[in-house]
């Protein structure tokens, strides 16, 4: 101790003795002065240390020590005020206390931040993290106190920088201690028990251990983020591949400095895991092999990843265990549990089928704790698992049907042939030959068989094979509800509802050319109409066999609106595109004042092309759409040509010779009545009332009669 320090210590002791001899008012006055001096020196120390100008005098000054001394004097004065309480003295003392509290917080924050860099260099990462957390808490407290904003902003800026430096150091240490290396099909997990130098190869005073790393990451609330990354790596590269191929080479090596675990170093198994191709004994052996290799992986996590970690990190270990189990459970459920569920609902009472998976879950619990025993819960609710399996199988069948690229169509309704495509697809039921005679004679074209008068008769049209199969699937699936009993009736009903929803999801996206392919658009329209027709009374005859609570809600009529919307959306684009094409081909017919010019040959040619566009779409519509819908579509398209021609004819006053030419000119339009507005049935051809479907037809006929009368 030098002479100046001894003098300062002696002066401080004399000052304390003189302070205690003062009365309470004098002590308060002295405290107010000292607090202001401490505030100024603390602000100066903060500004001096964390800025470019460093004052040696201020740098060596410790504001925290000065604040501690003032705190002792404050306690002495508080005792005196308590013996002689008065409102004025109490108020002055409270103000001093609040100011002193703010100074102490700022001094502690300054002290914590000042030492961060040295602590990082020394490898004291756990101390760094604690200091950062404490500094952040104190800064939050200072925010609510009356302090100068300038030094507070300096502290905030330094806090952000120091916290970023600590997190960067944690990233470096985490990457050094736990690394996942991928080389081709080989994955390696390397764990280092301690790091002795920083990224600049500057040695630490003390090696940073895994326990220090976990403590620091938990203090800065980043441990779970890092754990999630490890969980994903372990699940994707080790646990799930081993679940499907437990014979994949797995090796673990350990030294005094670390350990490593690799998978696929000697090649991966080429066998494809197909549960349905295994018998029960092979499948049980497969689960036992999975249990063996998974135990090796989990023991590596416990013994090496958490090497020499005390119970303080048990929560991190448990968190990783829960996350890993939750990550692999869906695959366990789909690929291991579901194949073990009996196909017969009557065999569900025997839970022996779940024993291999229960042993797998027990082996997991012996190494890694888990809170939710999912296998046990599934064993207790085998019926629900059975229901989910059946529903998944049914919807998988529907998805495969809808995803097929079969562009063939089926004629249904009316007196036309009906192909029992379900019998052809499954090999069951009636014979569905090429001549269109189905074994069930009209299956899918009628609703209840009691409809003797044909009120619910479905009109003749073409639908896709997928729509026909979907209806047959729905009928057959609802029939299962009667066979399996009331326990699974709701499953089949909801599976049918989901099947119709799959149609709305898959078919429009699969047939993405609806706007340019009239046939596909018309078939989609018919599909939706056909499905709506069957949704009205689907399953109505089996309702009495369903549970009472299901009878009121087991209906499909709420799906009708969405299919009607889909029907409109499927046909509207191609009709609009055709109308636009017809308008472009009409050309001059859409403009006024040209009939007096000598351009009749060109005008006739444009009419022929425009009528050809209408006829092309009309022929496709006539081949596939119901007759009433066909006439409606034809009327919408013909209205474009007829309307423009009628307007142009109404605008002109011509001679008799010119009138005869105009009548001959519009002959292609007049021929639409005999060419297209004709319906073919078993009794012959019938001409449809054109004016009923083409609103502009009467106007055209009026103009033609006017011109014809003018030529007589």
Task: Set down the secondary structure blueprint.
Layout: H1 3-21, H2 24-49, H3 56-59, H4 63-83, H5 87-114, H6 116-122, H7 125-143, H8 149-177, E1 178-183, E2 186-192, E3 194-197, E4 203-209, H9 210-219, H10 223-244, E5 250-254, E6 258-263, H11 280-305, H12 314-340, H13 355-367, H14 374-380, H15 382-402, E7 409-412, H16 421-426, E8 461-464, H17 465-484, H18 489-510, H19 518-535, H20 548-551, H21 560-586, H22 600-624, H23 627-651, H24 656-665, H25 667-670, H26 672-675, E9 678-681, E10 684-687, H27 690-693, H28 697-710
Antiparallel strand pairs: 1-2, 2-6, 3-4, 5-6, 7-8, 9-10
Helix pairs in contact: 2-4, 2-5, 4-5, 5-7, 5-8, 6-7, 7-8, 7-9, 8-9, 10-11, 10-12, 11-13, 15-17, 15-18, 17-18, 19-21, 19-22, 21-22, 21-23, 22-23, 23-28, 24-28
CA-to-CA gap between the ends?
138 Å
Largest sheet: 4 strands, antiparallel
Q: Describe the strand arrangement of the main beta sheet, using strand numbers.
A: 1-2-6-5
Strand content: 5-15%
Class based on secondary structure composition and strand pairing: alpha+beta
3D shape: elongated
Number of strands: 10
Radius of gyration: 43 Å
Q: What is the overall pLDDT average?
A: 77
pLDDT < 50 runs, ≥5 residues: 1-14, 52-59, 416-455
């Amino acid at each position: 101790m030098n002479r100046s320090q001894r003098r300062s210590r002696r002066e401080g002791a004399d000052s304390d003795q003189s302070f205690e001899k003062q009365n309470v008012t004098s002590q308060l006055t002295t405290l107010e002065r000292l607090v202001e001096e401490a505030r100024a020196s603390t602000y100066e120390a903060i500004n001096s240390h964390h800025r470019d100008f460093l004052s040696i005098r201020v740098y060596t000054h410790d504001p925290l020590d000065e604040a501690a001394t003032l705190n002792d004097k404050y306690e002495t004065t508080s005792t005196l005020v308590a013996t002689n309480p008065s409102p004025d003295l109490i108020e002055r003392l409270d103000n001093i206390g609040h100011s002193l509290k703010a100074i102490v917080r700022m001094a502690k924050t300054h002290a914590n931040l000042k030492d961060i860099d040295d602590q990082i260099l020394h490898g004291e990462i756990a101390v760094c993290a604690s200091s950062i957390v404490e500094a952040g808490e104190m800064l939050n407290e200072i925010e609510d106190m009356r302090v100068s904003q300038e030094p507070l902003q300096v502290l905030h800026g330094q806090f952000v920088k120091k916290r970023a430096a600590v997190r960067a150091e944690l990233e470096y240490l985490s990457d050094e201690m736990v690394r996942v290396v991928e080389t081709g099909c080989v994955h390696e997990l390397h764990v280092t028990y301690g790091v002795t130098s920083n990224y600049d190869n500057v040695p630490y005073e003390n090696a940073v251990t895994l326990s220090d790393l976990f403590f620091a990451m938990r203090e800065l609330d980043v441990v779970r983020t890092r754990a999630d990354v490890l969980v994903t790596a372990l699940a994707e590269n080790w646990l799930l591949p081993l679940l499907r191929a437990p014979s994949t080479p797995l090796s673990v090596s350990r030294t005094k400095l670390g350990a490593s675990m690799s998978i696929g170093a000697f090649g991966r198994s080429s066998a494809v895991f197909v549960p349905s191709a295994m018998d029960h004994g092979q499948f049980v052996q497969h689960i036992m092999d999975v249990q063996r290799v998974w135990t090796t992986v989990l023991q590596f996590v416990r013994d090496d990843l958490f090497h020499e970690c005390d119970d303080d990190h048990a929560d991190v270990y448990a968190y990783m265990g829960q996350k890993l189990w939750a990550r692999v459970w869906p695959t366990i459920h789909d690929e291991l549990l579901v194949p073990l569920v009996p196909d017969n609902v009557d065999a569900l009472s025997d839970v022996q089928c779940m024993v291999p998976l229960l042993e797998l879950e027990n082996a997991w619990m012996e190494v890694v704790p888990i809170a939710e025993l999912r296998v046990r819960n599934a064993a207790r609710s085998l019926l629900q698992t059975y229901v989910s399996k059946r529903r998944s199988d049914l919807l998988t069948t529907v998805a495969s049907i809808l995803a097929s690229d079969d562009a063939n169509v089926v004629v249904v309704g009316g007196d036309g042939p009906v192909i029992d495509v379900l019998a052809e697809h499954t090999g069951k039921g009636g014979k569905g030959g090429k001549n269109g005679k189905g074994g069930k004679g009209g299956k899918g074209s009628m609703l209840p068989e009691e409809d003797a008068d044909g009120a619910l008769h479905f009109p003749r049209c073409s639908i896709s094979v997928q729509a026909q199969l979907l209806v047959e699937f729905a009928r057959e699936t609802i029939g299962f509800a009667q066979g399996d009993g009331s326990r699974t009736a709701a499953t089949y009903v909801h599976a049918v509802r989901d099947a119709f929803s799959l149609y709305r999801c898959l078919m429009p996206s699969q047939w993405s050319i609806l706007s340019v392919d009239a046939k596909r658009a018309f078939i989609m329209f018919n599909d939706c109409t056909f499905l709506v027709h069957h949704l009205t009374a689907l399953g109505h005859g089996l309702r009495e066999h369903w549970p009472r609570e299901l009878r009121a809600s087991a209906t499909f009529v709420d799906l009708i609106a969405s299919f009607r919307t889909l029907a409109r959306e499927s046909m509207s684009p191609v009709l609009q595109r055709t109308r636009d094409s017809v308008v472009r081909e009409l050309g001059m017919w859409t403009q006024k004042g040209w009939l007096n010019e000598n351009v009749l040959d060109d005008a006739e040619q444009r009419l022929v092309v425009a009528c050809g566009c209408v006829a092309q779409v009309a022929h496709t519509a006539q081949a596939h759409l119901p007759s009433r819908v066909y006439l409606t579509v034809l009327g919408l398209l013909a209205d474009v040509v007829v309307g423009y021609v009628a307007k142009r004819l109404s605008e002109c006053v011509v001679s008799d010779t010119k009138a005869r030419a105009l009548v001959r000119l519009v002959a292609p339009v007049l021929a639409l009545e005999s060419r297209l507005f004709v319906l073919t049935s078993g009794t012959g051809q019938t001409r449809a009332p054109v004016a009923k479907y083409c609103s502009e037809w009467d106007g055209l006929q009026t103009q033609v009669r006017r011109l014809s009368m003018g030529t007589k």
